[in-house]
Design goal:
alpha+beta; Tetrahydropterin Synthase, Chain A; Protein HflK
Length: 329
């Protein structure tokens, strides 16, 4: 059929169906919007996207605005790799965002047997992160439930290797460290794609029927430790002081001994010097020693009366005071 241009001049545009034309443009526009909507997605800062193409893993998507094939050819699963997750054992915190944070069998979880065949109630928590999203999503069917089972198994093993006193009192840090190491080894072995950050013991107590008696024993041990510490404090306060006083007296005695030895040696040296001079001139030396001695003694005699050695009696010399002696009448 040959097109005739004159037909357009005879065509009445008022009879043209414009609604059909708008419908023809609306379909591609809707298709374009659907393509854009199914191709653009956003990965949050704390997450990582796992892109699947027809259900098969293709790549990991980092945080930010990303694109994928439309029409659900590629799908994205968001995994919170930077969020720290928590699981509680033996108790449960209400309002938890993680559905696997606690279980309904809390009584069974916290009941354990120690290495010395005693019962104990142990409550603990684990904190972990998703390290490998691919392993976390596809290697194990339910990694969070598997982690709960592994954590309970490890804690029962660690507690079963220790006595009840170690579990309740002094062995808490060692239990936490051993449980963390063993749990991380099992997580790596099962390829859960998780990283265990912390294992922390919470309430660790003996069973309720013996809890009161155990608390009394524990209190007695604490009082014993307190008394020992007080005694050690007194010992550390008294003994160093006594040692210091003893050392001071020893040093004083040694100083006094050195002083006496030096004085004796000085006296000996002086005597030897006098003896040497005496041997050179006995009379002169004797006279000099006598004069020096009298010079030291006479001033200390006070009032003196000198008489003749042949006198038969001493006359009563009354009122011979210093004044009458200076001014005789």
């Amino acid at each position: 059929m040959k097109f005739d241009p004159d037909d357009w001049r005879d065509f009445d545009w008022r009879d043209f169906d414009w609604a059909q034309v708008r419908m023809l443009w609306l379909i591609p526009a809707l298709l374009l919007v659907f393509v854009v909507f199914t191709s653009v997605y956003t990965v949050q800062a704390e997450s990582q996207g796992v892109v699947l193409r027809f259900g098969k893993f293709v790549r990991n998507a980092e945080p930010g605005l990303r694109f994928k094939l439309p029409f659900n050819i590629e799908r994205v699963s968001m995994v919170p790799v930077k969020r720290q997750l928590k699981q509680e054992f033996g108790f449960g915190t209400t309002g938890a965002s993680n559905p696997n944070q606690f279980s309904a069998e809390q009584t069974l979880e916290r009941g354990m047997v120690t290495g010395d065949l005693n019962a104990a109630t142990v409550e603990w928590i684990i904190q972990y992160r998703v390290r490998d999203p691919k392993l976390y999503l596809f290697k194990v069917r339910d990694p969070d439930s598997t982690l709960r089972a592994l954590s309970e198994s490890v804690m029962r093993t660690v507690v079963g290797d220790r006595t009840v006193d170690e579990v309740i009192t002094v062995g808490r840090q060692e239990i936490e460290a051993d449980a963390l190491t063993q749990l991380q080894d099992l997580v790596n072995k099962y390829e859960l794609g998780l990283s265990i950050d912390q294992v922390q013991l919470k309430n660790v107590n003996p069973p309720l029927p013996v809890q009161r008696s155990f608390n009394e024993v524990n209190q007695a041990q604490q009082e014993r430790e307190q008394l020992i510490n007080v005694a050690n404090g007194e010992y550390n306060k008294v003994v160093p002081r006594a040692s210091g006083e003893a050392e001071q007296k020893i040093q004083a005695a040694e100083g006094y001994a050195l002083k006496r030895v030096n004085e004796a040696e000085g006296d000996v040296a002086r005597f030897n010097a006098v003896m040497t001079e005496y041997l050179k001139a006995p009379e002169v030396t004797k006279q000099r020693i006598y004069i020096e001695t009298m010079r030291e003694i006479v001033p200390n005699l006070g009032k003196k009366i000198i008489i003749d050695e042949n006198a038969s009696q001493i006359l009563p010399l009354l009122q011979l005071s210093a004044e009458s002696t200076r001014n005789p009448s």
